[in-house]
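We modelled each protein-ligand pair independently. The example shown here corresponds to the flavin-adenine dinucleotide entry; the chain sequence is given first, followed by the ligand as SMILES.
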Amino acid sequence: MGETAEHAVVIGASIGGLCAARVLSDFYARVTLCERDELPENPVNRAAVPQGRHVHMLMARGAQEFETHFPGLLQDMVANGVPILQNRPDCIHFGAAGHVLGTAHRLQSEFTAYVPSRPHLEWQLRKRVLALDNVDIIEAAVSEPRFETTRERVTGVQLESGAVLPADLVVDATGRGTRLPVWLQKWGYERPREDVVFVGISYASQRVRVPDGLLTEKVVVAGASRAQPRGIGMLFYEDGIWNITTFGVGKVPPPQTFAQMCGLADEILPAHVASALRQGTPVDEVAHHKFPASRWRRYDKLDRLPRGILPFGDAVVSFNPTFGQGMSMTSLQAGHLRRALTSPGADVAMQCVRATAKTTFPVWTMNAIGDLIMHRATGPTPWWYKPVGALFDQFLGAAESDPVLAEWFLRRFSLLDSLYMVPPPRLVGRAIRQNMRLWLAERRAAKRPVTFETMREPG
Ligand SMILES: Cc1cc2nc3c(=O)[nH]c(=O)nc-3n(C[C@H](O)[C@H](O)[C@H](O)COP(=O)(O)OP(=O)(O)OC[C@H]3O[C@@H](n4cnc5c(N)ncnc54)[C@H](O)[C@@H]3O)c2cc1C
């Protein structure tokens, strides 16, 4: 390890900060997590994490990664009522870019996913971190890290109370609102370049109690498409309540009331799901959230970073939330941090941000293609995004009626197997053949009534 291993400070005790603290606890004698928000004893929403009120999908890969850092987590979640999805055909309805996949057939290989609410997952991680002997979580806001010009390194943090915590490593896990770029500039370093996709997403969410026996599904997703700029995510959580999140992309407003949410469900969800929702009883108020842009701060492109500071979690990259990847991608960063800390003589921060860039690139690029080509987003659009987007639309069209293609997509979407959404030639050929079959069947069907009508036409 390239850093002295006495004391590490992590700013922000949300999913990112908790993951970082867990890894650091194996390498530093002491770890202190500083959180400006009040930390509840129970799994409830926190004021400083407003996104927690909206549906959070945990990808199958994310669950696996969290389990490696927090052994026993998954079993404990299930024991606490967190629904588990196995590859049963009726537990998920999944619509992406106007195509519905994977519901009609049993998937062939094992596929297990978990459906914890965002507050539940954070509470599970927090109680595990609190149980570590060498980690303290303190409720204190950090005003900024301390930087020593002569040594060109960060030496600790200054709290808003005025107290100073000396540290050998400071991790910035303060989320999308991070001020690290500003601090870097102040210390005489370059700010990182930012890759931005202006997605213009607005969320409106409502918790709903649906009468028992109406739905076998635990996850219902209908993403936005070219034709429909609004989408819905419905997750059945451990408290037995459905969280219904509706959203609009490209600055299109989402439904504002429960009645309007039911109206959207009638348009884009299967009839039995929309009907179950109408029979539901809303619990508490509709929550709103705006997410103007996906943002990737390119620390990996900088020539130098001061020693002793590491950006982490959403502070590095904040993905379009409607794809449900942020927490899972953060869990991958924890693996990068562990590997950097075990590399002899490594510059931990640089190694970690570069490894993060490698795993971010394929996911970020595929999201950008979907958003810029199909979801009315704006931002730099390389010429090849359009043909790739069109090809992918064809692939998803074929996957609607081909379980092998659907399974391939759902596994990749869940970040399993590989982060690259590039089908091998064998599957491209299969998609082309399937689309040909569909096209021929459509033509035959279209011809029949025309011939009949033509025969009846006078003259
Ligand atoms: C609307 C929405 C929906 C989402 N849906 C999904 C989803 O379906 N699936 C998924 O995987 N991800 C989703 N995400 C992303 C997910 O929420 C984040 O990736 C995840 O929370 C990790 O973020 P983080 O810990 O890096 O930052 P955050 O969760 O933003 O936490 C930052 C923490 O730092 C603290 N902090 C900030 N400044 C200071 C300071 N100066 N001193 C002390 N503490 C400070 C804050 O109080 C907060 O606790 C969604 C995000 C949004 C916005």
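The mean pLDDT is 93.
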